[in-house]
Specification:
The chain is an alpha+beta fold. It is 42% helix and 25% strand. The chain folds into four domains: 3-62, Orthogonal Bundle (Arc Repressor Mutant, subunit A), CATH 1.10.10; 75-125; 140-219, SH3 type barrels (Roll); 230-311, Alpha-Beta Plaits (2-Layer Sandwich), CATH 3.30.70. The model has no long low-confidence stretch (mean pLDDT 86).
Length: 313
């Protein structure tokens, strides 16, 4: 094996280990001690963050924030990576905002000139916008790391009023430019969805034992549908179908019969106001609404809106 090939393989080998010693390298690559020492020095020059622990049982330790070994990409794979970076630029905040900026600088510095010209054209031509809002979510990075590391947090959350909850984060998602997290509430032993910008403070907690992430993910299949939920159907025109495509939720589905589209789903007892406001947005594209209780709630909300408008100057 040529030295360049050996170093390439050694980067991958040491990258997967938290610690190693010269004997490991000598036995794996069948090289002398002096060659192993020179190879370790070469790895350090390539950027592998290694430090030596001296003594009888001396060893090399690879830092947790270590680099990944170099990977060869095709041109289309490079375009795909850069396109993914562009999609993140549409968000006001992301979990790794500063890192993404430095990643783009690094990415640009290593691209071949021909590829660099093409990705510049991509950046100038591709515009991926998300709805703009002024809500700030400063804990996105901590939330994502908390999911990965399966940690429990005590958070201060603002809804109608401020409250403290002990939670484990399960998922992080963005919808219409707004960041949401699904949490497992340790106090109520159930899954909830919260807005990340409503989190005022969060700190790691050791009061409760964390649950395995795979178990919490399995709860997402049925967590939302509560006992006593109301089933509904709304028939709409093609214009209503377009509105549904722009905004819909996991508790809903859309089917087509001829030229009529049917939105089916359910809402829980405490979600009547939400579903009422949502269906009102479909306006004159609505053809029918069931059950009658939901139809009456929508009519009541519309009358309230008319009364409010009449009071305006």
């Amino acid at each position: 094996m040529r030295r360049s090939e050996r170093l390439q393989d050694m980067l991958q080998y040491t990258n997967e280990k938290k610690q190693f010693n010269l004997k490991d390298l000598i036995e794996k690559y069948r090289i002398s001690r002096s060659t192993a020492i020179r190879d370790v020095q070469a790895l350090e020059m390539l950027g592998m963050p290694i430090y030596a622990e001296h003594g009888r049982n001396g060893k090399y330790v690879v830092l947790d924030n270590r680099i990944l070994s170099p990977i060869t990409f095709t041109a289309d794979e490079l375009y795909a990576i850069y396109f993914a970076m562009l999609t993140l630029s549409g968000y006001k905040e992301t979990p790794f905002e500063q890192e993404i900026n430095s990643l783009e600088e690094t990415f640009q510095s290593v691209l071949p000139s021909g590829i660099k010209d093409r990705v510049k054209k991509m950046k100038d031509s591709v515009k991926l916008d998300t709805p703009s809002h002024s809500n700030e979510a400063p804990y996105l990075k901590e939330i994502l790391k908390g999911i990965i590391d399966e940690k429990v947090y005590t958070i201060s959350y603002r809804k109608e009023d401020s409250r403290n909850m002990t939670v484990q984060f399960v998922t992080l998602q963005a919808k219409f430019g707004q960041w949401y997290a699904k949490i497992y509430n340790m106090n109520s032993s159930r899954v909830q969805t919260i807005r990340c910008d409503k989190i005022l403070q969060m700190r790691e907690s050791e009061e409760k034992q964390p649950r395995e992430l795979q178990y919490l993910l399995s709860l997402l299949q049925t967590y939302h549908h509560q006992p006593g939920a109301t089933m509904f159907t709304v028939e709409v025109t093609e214009r209503g179908k377009d509105l549904y495509d722009k905004e819909s939720y996991p508790s809903m589905s859309l089917t087509k019969t001829g030229n009529i589209y049917t939105i089916s789903g359910y809402y829980n007892t405490n979600e009547e106001a939400f579903i009422t406001d949502y269906i009102i947005r479909f306006g004159k594209s609505i053809l029918s609404i069931e059950p009658s209780e939901l139809r009456a709630a929508i009519q009541g909300e519309l009358k309230s809106l008319v009364t409010h408008m009449e009071k305006l100057n």
